[in-house]
Amino acid sequence: MKDIFEKIRENRGPLGQYSQVGHGYFFFPKLEGPISNKMIFRDKEVLTWSLNNYLGLANHPEVRKADADAAAEWGLAYPMGARMMSGNSNYHEQLESELSSYVGKEDTILLNYGYQGMSSTIDALVDRNDVIVYDSESHACIMDGMRMHVGKRFVYQHNDMNSLKVQLERATKLVANTSGGILVITEGVFGMAGDQGRLKDIVDLKADYNFRLFVDDAHGIGTMGPTGAGTGEEQGCMDGIDVYFGTFAKSFALIGGFISSEEKIIEYLRYNTRSQIFAKSLPMPLVIGALKRLELMRNDPSHKENLWKIVRSLQSKLLDNGFNLGRTNSPVTPVFLSGGPFEAANVILDLRENHGIFCSMVIYPVVPKDTIMLRLIPTAVHTEEDVNYTIEIFKNVKDKLENGHYAKDKIVYA
């Protein structure tokens, strides 16, 4: 029998194995200064394409004032305790009501953290007799939620409706003689590849199959649809989404999240979602800050308009210059290149050290072997100058990559 610590020392995990060379640079980097299109990395100013600050609200003056005023008035402790016991407030309930109105659902429950809230909501919605059918590219919070599910779960190929039908047939046969039901889980916008989930097509399948649809719209809330109410609004099928998840960590530039659904379902979740029942209530400054952000999202469309102006410019110019953006149809902008992990590391070092561009790098096993994905996140505070500079540098880097400039068996630019 091995000691637990001994096993950990021998196997540090798929990412942890690189910690000695990557910590503080490729992993856990420190971006400093005001949150904006340009920040400070290792004492140098860099053009930053790696923050999910879609609408540019993180450093908006009205938002900063609301946050500061709320912190001064309430502090970070209030309300004290879990909401069920002693941590409720009129502001919490106001935020839930306004979110319900925004996304067109009857009721809403706030989540202290989007990740844990998503996982815990899955656990609350299903029991051992129920079957979960989920998209193969679902986010880690969905996968962790399903790990708690003791019943069956079937995966369908990403955005493949024929594959989904096959799994729905399996699930339907399985629950036919039990008291179980079927929960389909997908995403509104997939955060790596940037493509939208085929929500309208899934909703249409309800005519042939009996299931409920749970959508994680972390990247869709605030960015998609005429009013920013999400990918369901974008595709004209919001009414067909039975349980809707949104996070505050992206467009809201905050912490927390919410679940919206019909009133009876939210009432059930309010009394049965363990990560909320047994956790301290969302602090008042975050609640009041979310109300201010929601006000701006609903009443000032310029933030979303500025975002999409940059998205269209960046993506069209990348495509015009021969870059592969995969299947994105959202602000998430993946740039696919060919190369191994050391080439990827050297590309990132060149971008950051020599050209002042900070973006995220994704390699195997998230993408196929010999593939490098540079993930760019446009925001409302980026400029056309930022776009044009990035295009020129990316063209240069792509040429060097194709000519073998980065083809080393070690990191050479550090």
Q: How is the topology of this model organized?
A:
Layout: H1 4-10, H2 19-22, E1 31-32, E2 38-41, E3 44-48, H3 61-74, H4 90-103, E4 107-111, H5 114-125, E5 131-135, H6 140-147, E6 153-156, H7 161-175, E7 182-187, H8 199-204, E8 212-216, H9 231-234, E9 243-247, E10 257-261, H10 263-272, H11 274-277, H12 284-299, H13 302-320, E11 333-338, H14 341-355, E12 357-358, E13 360-362, E14 371-376, H15 384-402
Parallel strand pairs: 3-12, 5-6, 5-7, 7-8, 8-9
Antiparallel strand pairs: 1-2, 2-3, 4-10, 9-10, 11-14, 13-14
Helix pairs in contact: 3-12, 4-12, 5-6, 13-15, 14-15
What is the highest CATH level, the class of the largest domain? Alpha Beta
The low-confidence parts are none
- Indicate the proportion of strand residues: 15-25%
Q: How many distinct beta strands?
A: 14
- Helical amount among residues, as a percent range? 40-55%
Class by helix and strand content?
A: alpha/beta
What is the succession of H and E elements?
HHEEEHHEHEHEHEHEHEEHHHHEHEEEH
Tell me the strand order in the biggest sheet.
4-10-9-8-7-5-6
Alpha-carbon Rg, integer:
22 Å
- Tell me the name of the CATH homologous superfamily of the largest domain: Type I PLP-dependent aspartate aminotransferase-like (Major domain)
Name the CATH architecture of the largest domain.
3-Layer(aba) Sandwich
The coarse overall form would be globular
Largest beta-sheet details: 7 strands, mixed
N-to-C terminal Cα separation, in Å?
41 Å
| Count of domain modules | 2
Helical segment count: 15
**Mean of the pLDDT scores?**
93
What is the CATH topology classification name of the largest domain?
Aspartate Aminotransferase, domain 2
